[in-house]
């Protein structure tokens, strides 16, 4: 077959195969690329503030880009530090109290559930003594296997922990150099595009950039509304830690499940410590259940979906589809990736409507 190709076709085939090989190499190096992808996403978000800072002039001298990058990264790290300082005091206060009150809570739980479990033929005590006996029996029955599993889990967990530590240490370094050379890197990418496609590709990139900017603004608005909602709702229910827990839950909503799960766990701990019986747990169930409905069916479809031109049903479908295909990372990137696909689909639809296949 190659013998029947023209020189131009042979050249095009060579470059397409080379790009496919490069894409396959990137796929195989996926775990290694994690810090670079994370740093690239952060660089895209933080490049705007860096450019604005570089345009400032101090006594007629522009701010050096390296200094602007360093200042923006320090401010970003300070925001994360402030978020951590919001959580750590709450945990430091609540966990010792929880440990102290856990035996009494288990006695109440045993009195509530044991009779119902006994009716189903399940005879187990849920107080501290019963749980201790159950653990002792499990350890005595399969001691060797249990220790083997624990040691294997420790080895795997230790390797994973070292991998995460290396990734976290590498991300700031990669982020600094990406922000420092951001425009030069974009120029190199643009220079690598075949000249006959450079106009269309650049136009699509501008559309994607505009959509992602609208997505980020919509997501920030969702975070603010949810932070206000959770703080006000928990304060109205009488929680002492309403403000830090509510703010944390709202600000971490951009990470699906993690922000909601951490806020829910802190609220449940506060409910156990502060309220008698199941009253506090009922408050938490109602507040966080309503918050999930508010976020999933109103705020995200309306404030994020409409800003990027997506129907609310399309937003819900995108979250479910990307989560099914790519797991947690897919849920995290579902809406930005959908915005990119929408731009490509619009251009593809335009070509389809102009084609002889459609108009014949």
From TrEMBL:
Transmembrane segments: 16-46, 67-91, 161-180, 220-239, 245-273, 280-300, 312-345
Domain of life where this protein originates: Bacteria
Pfam families assigned to the protein according to its UniProt record, in alphabetical order: AI-2E_transport
InterPro entries in alphabetical order: AI-2E-like (IPR002549)
Topology in membrane: Multi-pass membrane protein
Subcellular location per the Swiss-Prot or TrEMBL entry: Membrane
Keyword field: Membrane, Transmembrane, Transmembrane helix
Main localisation: membrane
UniProt keyword Transmembrane, yes or no: yes
Family per similarity comment: Belongs to the autoinducer-2 exporter (AI-2E) (TC 2.A.86) family.
Name by which UniProt lists this protein: AI-2E family transporter
Species assigned in the record: Massilia terrae
């Amino acid at each position: 077959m190659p013998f029947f190709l023209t020189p131009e076709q042979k050249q095009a085939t060579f470059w397409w195969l080379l790009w496919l090989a490069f894409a396959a190499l990137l796929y195989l190096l996926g775990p290694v690329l994690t810090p670079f992808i994370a740093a690239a996403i952060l660089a895209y978000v933080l490049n705007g503030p860096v450019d604005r800072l570089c345009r400032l002039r101090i006594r007629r001298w522009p701010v050096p880009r390296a200094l602007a990058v360093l200042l923006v990264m320090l401010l970003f790290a300070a925001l994360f530090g402030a978020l951590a300082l919001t959580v750590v005091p709450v945990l430091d206060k609540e966990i010792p109290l929880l440990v102290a009150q856990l035996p009494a809570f288990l006695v109440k739980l045993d009195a509530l559930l044991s009779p119902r479990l006994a009716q189903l033929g399940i005879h187990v005590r849920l107080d501290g003594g019963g749980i201790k006996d159950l653990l002792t029996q499990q350890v005595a029955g399969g001691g060797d296997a249990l220790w083997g599993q624990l040691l294997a889990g420790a080895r795997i967990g230790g390797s994973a922990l070292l991998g995460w530590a290396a990734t976290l240490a590498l991300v700031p370094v990669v982020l600094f150099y990406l922000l420092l050379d951001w425009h030069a890197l974009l120029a190199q990418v643009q220079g690598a595009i075949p000249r006959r496609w450079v106009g269309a590709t650049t136009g699509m990139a501008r559309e994607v950039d505009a959509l992602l900017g609208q997505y980020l603004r919509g997501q920030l608005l969702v975070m603010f509304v949810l932070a206000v909602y959770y703080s006000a709702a928990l304060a109205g229910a009488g929680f002492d830690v309403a403000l830090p827990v509510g703010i944390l839950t709202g600000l971490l909503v951009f990470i699906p499940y993690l922000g909601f799960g951490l806020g829910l766990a802190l609220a449940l701990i506060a409910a156990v410590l502060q309220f008698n019986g199941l009253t506090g747990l009922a408050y938490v169930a109602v507040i966080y259940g309503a918050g999930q409905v508010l976020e999933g069916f109103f705020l995200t479809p309306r404030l994020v979906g409409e800003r990027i031109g997506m129907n609310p049903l399309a937003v819900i479908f995108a979250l479910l589809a990307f989560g099914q295909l790519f797991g947690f990372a897919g849920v995290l990137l579902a809406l930005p990736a959908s915005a990119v696909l929408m731009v490509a689909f619009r251009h593809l639809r335009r070509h389809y409507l102009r084609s002889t296949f459609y108009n014949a």
